[in-house]
Design brief:
heterodimer; A: mainly alpha; B: mainly alpha; 3 strands; globular
Chain lengths: 246, 340
């Protein structure tokens, strides 16, 4: 048995601490590289050349820059407005139905690389959460704060889950290119980003099924929560705060 | 199956070769630098321009420099650029500028008059990419290939972006040059995060040189028999999720866990097929992202934006889906990666 050498792991410790203390990630990653090199006795010139070589060899990661002009010009001519109107026109809206449609649209557009089409600040806060809350208020009247928070949190979760599990299907997304660069760097040849993107599809479908199933049960959960609050708390009306908009 | 590094020495000549694509990216970045310098109201005009110029230089002059000055000198100046890029970002000297985005009513008017055709150029990018990759990959005229044979997907993507840009021009009357200028808004809003994947790939490379993977491998073998396929898959998937929860970022966890567990034990040890392995492995990391306050911009910032009383409520709502998907990932990976 060779003895256990833990020095190469110092870089990981730096990354963990650096991220924990919220330093700029580029700085954290670079310092982790420097310290790892120092821990295993690479001389500085050699380490610098290693940095440069690895950075040069992973330049394909920047190819997403070529897509941005297309998205930018479409946004300049109202792409986001178009997407908003599309969602706003959903008929027969209930909270669960609005969130489900948003989930499907968000996941499939992420799979097409349209990541900046929506987001927590762009669509969830101004659009999705108010619509989901509005639908629930139509059905149940004024909502207590707890129920409002539950629906808002579900709106935020919808956006995160949909975009995470959609984006890796898109072959020019950073994660896919990172995996591709990693495999090439490790001497594993014959894999195209397209293969990696295709293998993201099963999990993407699983995410869709699992989350839509949970959303289908959300409507009943809202009813139960309201009934429970009504029965346990005599001052139900007190927990209903006035409509607030920022 | 010979191309291991992404250098293209000895590759067949191609119109959209990887070197030409890098040059193109270099020119795009250079254009953004000029636009940034012209933005008189930019709060960090010079340092932001310097940041992107250091980055763009690697694309514009990297290959030329290797040809003229040799690899060692080139890699060293690129290494110095990397340190400067990290320093500029670390000191907070890179920021958004000013952009004249049209008013809401003008955007609304455009979106009404153009209609759903606005979606077409965006949808065309993946469609053209897939068609070119699958059916037109080997296209060549007089021995010159259209697409780089070692980077088929990227070459196809480049062509697709060009095509989409022209279609967008037709529908919106916004020219490709205008589109390039507009893209500065998106690039700046991504900011330093645009370079993070490349930096992480670099760190992964340093870890390889430093044999970090071997150290993790040694630790793994202390606990798990390398013959137990199922436990190795569980370890890789759960490890990706946990490590991502600590780091707040699946990209950072990926090179470490994959070099430590997936490559030595699953790919070399059991002949696992790499594409599904890494794709599902990365998604296991994303399950971790859904469960950690370290991924603040996804999990904590929205709680603030939505004025939630419990700032962990978004995470709490996400946990059941995340755990269900982690279990799905483990069984899916176990089911598809082994070929024997």
């Amino acid at each position: 048995m060779s003895e256990l050498n833990l020095l190469p792991l110092t870089g990981i410790l730096v990354v963990v601490l650096g991220f924990a203390f919220r330093f700029n990630p580029l700085l954290v990653v670079t310092v982790a590289g420097l310290i790892t090199g120092w821990a295993v006795d690479l001389n500085f010139a050699e380490l610098l050349a290693t940095f440069g070589e690895k950075f040069m060899n992973s330049r394909q990661l920047a190819s997403f820059l070529l897509i941005l002009p297309v998205i930018a010009i479409l946004e300049r001519y109202g792409l986001q407005n178009r997407a908003k109107n599309w969602i706003a026109n959903i008929k027969g809206a209930t909270t669960a139905r609005i969130l489900s449609v948003y989930f499907v649209v968000r996941e499939s557009s992420a799979a097409l690389g349209l990541l900046s089409l929506a987001g927590q600040a762009q669509t969830v806060r101004p659009l999705l959460a108010p619509m989901a809350l509005g639908a629930a208020a139509n059905a149940h009247g004024e909502l207590p704060k707890e129920v409002k928070d539950m629906i808002s949190a579900h709106s935020a979760a919808c956006d995160n889950i949909a975009v995470f599990f959609g984006e890796d299907i898109f072959i020019a997304f950073g994660a896919v290119l990172l995996m591709d660069a990693f495999l090439k760097e490790n001497g594993i040849a014959g894999i195209e980003p397209l293969h990696i993107g295709l293998w993201a599809i099963p999990t993407a479908i699983a995410a869709l099924i699992v989350h839509l199933f949970r959303l289908a049960r959300l409507e009943a959960k809202i009813c139960n929560k309201i009934a429970e609050l009504k029965s346990t708390s005599a001052n139900y009306n007190k927990s209903i705060d006035s409509e607030e908009t920022a | 199956m010979s191309a291991v590094s992404s250098n293209t020495q000895g590759a067949q000549p191609a119109l959209l070769s990887i070197d030409n694509i890098y040059l193109l990216i270099g020119f795009v970045v250079l254009f953004l630098v000029v636009k940034t310098l012209q933005d008189k109201n930019h709060p960090k005009r010079l340092t932001t321009a310097l940041f992107w110029m250091l980055f763009g230089n690697v694309f514009l002059f990297g290959d030329l420099s290797i040809a003229l000055l040799g690899e060692t000198i080139t890699y060293q100046w690129v290494g110095v650029s990397v340190l400067l890029i990290a320093a500029l970002a670390g000191l907070g000297l890179v920021s958004m500028g000013t952009y004249n985005m049209p008013k809401e009513d003008e955007l609304e008017r455009h979106s009404q008059s153009i209609g759903n055709k606005l979606f077409i150029p965006a949808v065309l990018i993946p469609i053209i990419t897939v068609i070119c990759t699958l059916f037109l990959g080997g296209l060549n005229i007089g021995g010159v290939f259209l697409f780089d044979q070692n980077h088929l997907t990227l070459a196809s993507l480049t062509l697709a972006c060009g095509g989409a840009l022209l279609v967008a021009w037709k529908f919106t009357s916004g020219s490709p040059v205008q589109a390039l200028g507009e893209s500065r808004r998106l690039v700046d809003s991504i900011g330093w995060a645009a370079i993070l994947p490349q930096m992480l790939a670099m760190l992964g490379g340093v870890f390889i040189v430093a044999n970090t993977g071997t150290a993790i491998q040694d630790i793994v073998t202390l606990f798990i028999s390398p013959d137990n396929r199922f436990m190795l898959v569980v370890l890789y998937c759960v490890g990706m999720a946990l490590f991502t929860m600590i780091m707040g970022n699946a990209f950072a966890a990926f090179p470490v866990m994959t070099a430590g567990i997936a490559v030595p034990f699953l790919i070399h040890g059991h002949g696992a097929s790499p594409a599904p392995l890494v794709a599902i492995g990365m998604y296991s990391g994303y399950c971790g992202t859904l469960m950690t306050p370290m991924a603040a911009n996804f999990n904590i910032v929205p709680a603030a934006l939505l004025d939630l009383k419990d700032k962990y409520q978004v995470i709490k709502v996400q946990i059941p889906t995340a755990i269900a998907l982690l279990i799905v990932n483990i069984f899916l990976m176990y089911g598809v990666i082994f070929n024997d």
